[in-house]
Design goal:
Elements (H helix, E strand, L loop, with lengths): L1 H8 L3 H23 L6 H10 L6 H7 L4 H13 L3 E6 L2 E9 L1 H25 L1 H12 L9
Antiparallel strand pairs: 1-2
Helix pairs in contact: 4-5, 6-7
C-alpha cells in the first residue's frame, strides 16, 4: 500500500480523483462478487443506479450513461438474464421500451448501497468524518466546468 500512496503523490488532481474512483469501485465490486452468487460489474451497477426507483426508457438510460448505446443494451440484457431488471413496452408505443428493477434487483441494489456505506465508514474511521464531509462538500460544489469550453 505504501507504493500506491507514493504513486498517488505524483498525480495531479484529475488523475488522483480518477485513481481513487477506480480503486473504490474495484473494492466495492470485489466485496459484492465475493459475497454474492449474482456477479455484477461496475457498469451493471451504474445502469442499475440510473433505474432504481424509476422506470426510464432504455433510450434515456443509454443517454445518461457514458457507455455506447450498443454496450448499454448488452448490459441491460445481461441484467435481465440475471433477473434484476424487467423490460416492458411503453404504453401506446411498441418501439419504445421501459426498464425497471425487479424486486430482486432492488434488493441487490439496496444491499450494495449498504456495502458502500460500510466502506465509507471505514474510510471515515481512517481519515476522519470532518474530512469526509469536507470532501463531499468540495465535490458537490459548482466548479464552473461548464464555462471552460
Amino acid at each position: 500500500m505504501k507504493f500506491m500512496e507514493t504513486e498517488f503523490n505524483k498525480l495531479d488532481l484529475i488523475d488522483s480523483l480518477s485513481e481513487r474512483h477506480h480503486q473504490l469501485r474495484r473494492i466495492i465490486e470485489e466485496l459484492w462478487n465475493d459475497n454474492s452468487n449474482i456477479q455484477l460489474s461496475n457498469s451493471e451497477w451504474f445502469i442499475m443506479a440510473r433505474i432504481y426507483k424509476r422506470q426510464p426508457t432504455i433510450a434515456h438510460v443509454s443517454k445518461s450513461v457514458d457507455i455506447s448505446r450498443q454496450a448499454t443494451h448488452k448490459l441491460i440484457k445481461k441484467l435481465e438474464a440475471k433477473g434484476l431488471v424487467e423490460i416492458n413496452d411503453v404504453e401506446d408505443n411498441k418501439k419504445v421500451k421501459s426498464i425497471r428493477l425487479t424486486t430482486l434487483g432492488e434488493e441487490c441494489y439496496e444491499k450494495n448501497e449498504q456495502l458502500k456505506k460500510t466502506v465509507q465508514k471505514k474510510i471515515s474511521d481512517k481519515i476522519g468524518t470532518e474530512k469526509i464531509n469536507m470532501l463531499k462538500e468540495l465535490l458537490q460544489m459548482d466548479w464552473g466546468l461548464d464555462n471552460l469550453d
